[in-house]
Structure formats: C-alpha cells, structure tokens
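User: Please fill in residues for this 262-position structure.
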C-alpha cells in the first residue's frame, strides 16, 4: 500500500484533486471510507485525497463515515490533514467566496459517532484549541501571498443537517458572535485530534445564512453556484501551501493523548 504525507478532505463541489492518482481501497474497523482514497504527488509530496461526501455527493452530512475517513488517512501514514468545507456566513463582514481559516467550532450535531474511544480505557481528549496552529498559520499566510481574501480565525458552528437553519436558529448563532456555519467540520476535526493528527479547515463562504438581515432562505443551488465560481481559487491555495507544509511538529495535535487517559 502506498504511503502519503498529507491528507485532503474534499467538501461539497470538490470531489477530485489529484491528477493521475492511484486509487486505494481501504477497509477500516469503522467500515469503508466515503470513497477509495486517491494518492498522488504534489510538488514532490505524496498526498491522499478523500471526497467526504463520496464521488457523486451521495452521502449527506449526517451519513458521512467520519471515523473511517480519518482512520484511512492514518493507515496511509498521513499526519497532517486539511479539510476544506462549504460554509454559510453569519455576518456581513464576510464576502461570498471568501475563505475563513477557523480557530474554533461549536458543535450542534447529534448522534454522530464522534470518538474512537468507546472504552474500556476511558480517554478525554482536549478540544480547547481544536485546529492545528501551524497549519492555520501556513494557510493564512499563503492565501495572503496570493491575494486570496482570507479571515484569520473565527468560529464555525456545525449543525446536524441536512436541513438549513430556521431564521430563529440563525439569529441565535449570529447573536453569539459566531462567524460561519456548516454541517461537516465536526466530528472530522476532533477525530483527527484523537489520533494525534494535525487538522485545519478552510471554510469557503457560499451564502449568507437566513438569519443575516435581509437574506432570503438559503438554497442548495445558490451554494453550488458559488462553489463552482471559487473552487479554482481553493485548488490554487492548496497547491501553493502543500510544498510549505513540514513534518508534524511536537505540538498540541501530536501530543493530544498525553494525560488524556484515566
């Protein structure tokens, strides 16, 4: 089985990334990943790619096999992961098509299998700072070098889906001061932390959530249109940042299990 240094999860509208890649079928203790893992070379680095919704977007957010996806990445040797995702904006301060490299999340999902540690060894992994600080820094710096509009930090609230928010829910999230909203950032990010992998997300703003003043209800068609208009810039950012990503440092990601077990 080939090895990979870095992992990329593709979100809505982002179902392929690597040209001439080898597809690897991996079974895990948690079932099959969303799709066979594509492994290919980018700037001399071996990169693994999984479209989290499947190759034809057949998996809605609450049905994605998050544990299998993250486990498969680790099986290939991946230690550092970037997980782009389509997101709504909860503030007019974000423009459509802008990127936000979030530093916090709020989990509003329910019933998702969100841990690898079901016992008998009880394990409590901290989520205080859930995204890799080194990957975040590299993503923000590279976006700015290429004049790609990017927000450094922000909170994404992760809702269960597949429905969009009510106006009341959206206004509640907005009043809390959160910046972005999506359906997939959790538990993907925390599962990576539980395996001591680095993880950072890039939230692409595809719409203004319905609670933002003056907005009509969000539609899937609107989200897809903005994704198609901006996926080229996402690819540009990923291709530019990959050569800059070094080995995993001895940081909060790599040491997550220290003092986590009772």
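Assistant: Residues filled in for all 262 positions:
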């Amino acid at each position: 089985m080939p090895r990979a240094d870095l992992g990329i999860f593709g979100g809505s509208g982002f179902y392929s990334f690597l040209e001439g890649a080898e597809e690897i079928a991996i079974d895990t203790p948690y079932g099959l990943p969303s799709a066979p893992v594509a492994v290919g070379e980018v700037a001399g680095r071996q990169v693994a790619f999984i479209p989290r919704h499947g190759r034809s977007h057949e998996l809605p957010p609450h049905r994605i096999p998050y544990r299998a996806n993250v486990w498969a990445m680790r099986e290939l040797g991946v230690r550092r992961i970037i997980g782009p995702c389509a997101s709504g904006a909860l503030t007019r301060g974000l423009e459509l098509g802008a990127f936000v490299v979030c530093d916090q999340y709020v989990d509003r999902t329910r019933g998702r299998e969100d841990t690898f540690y079901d016992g008998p060894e009880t394990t409590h992994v901290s989520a205080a700072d859930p995204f890799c600080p080194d990957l975040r820094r590299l993503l923000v710096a590279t976006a700015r070098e290429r004049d790609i509009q990017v927000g450094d930090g922000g909170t994404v609230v992760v809702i269960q889906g597949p429905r969009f928010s009510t106006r009341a829910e959206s206004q509640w999230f907005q009043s809390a001061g959160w910046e972005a909203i999506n359906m997939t950032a959790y538990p993907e990010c925390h599962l990576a932390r539980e395996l001591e992998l680095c993880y950072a997300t890039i939230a692409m703003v595809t719409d203004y959530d319905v609670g933002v003043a003056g907005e009509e209800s969000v539609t899937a068609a609107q989200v897809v249109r903005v994704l198609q208009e901006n996926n080229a810039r996402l690819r540009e950012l990923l291709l530019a940042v990959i050569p800059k990503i070094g080995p995993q440092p001895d940081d909060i990601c790599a040491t997550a299990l220290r003092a986590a077990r009772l």
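For context: The two ends are 35 Å apart (CA to CA).
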